[in-house]
Write a structure and sequence with these properties.
Elements lengths: L13 H63 L7 H44 L1
């Protein structure tokens, strides 16, 4: 008789069943260990990201302060004088830009109308 319970039973199946149970338990232990390592890596990654976030937030705060300082400096500067020609040219450019936008909208609308007319023409041809 085996004192460790690993001997063969009367049907000869006890040892393979015990081996399977040991294998299953070993896989479970390995899975638990792997899960623990995964959780540890996740925690380390989270800590790294949190530290990085704090650094970035500090940088954002510094940049915002710098922007405010630059805005304040700019407000104290005199506005450059524009000659009448520059003012006229800028006005003309704004007008041209507005006309271009209107023309783009008209072209888009025309394309849509042409597509609709083609659909109507195809539908009419099918009816005939």
């Amino acid at each position: 008789m085996d004192l460790h319970g690993g001997g063969m039973g009367m049907d000869g199946q006890q040892h393979p069943q015990r081996r399977r149970a040991v294998d299953i338990e070993e896989r479970r232990r390995q899975n638990r260990d792997a899960a623990a390592r995964h959780r540890q890596r996740q925690q380390e990654r989270l800590s790294t990201l949190e530290r990085h976030e704090a650094v970035l937030q500090q940088r954002v705060s510094e940049l915002r302060t710098e922007i405010m300082s630059l805005h304040n400096q700019r407000e104290g500067l005199p506005q450059p004088a524009r000659d009448p020609l520059t003012t006229t040219l800028l006005s003309m450019l704004e007008t041209v830009d507005g006309l271009r936008s209107s023309l783009d909208r008209c072209v888009d609308e025309s394309v849509a109308v042409v597509k609709e007319l083609r659909c109507i023409a195809r539908a009419t041809e099918r009816k005939e």
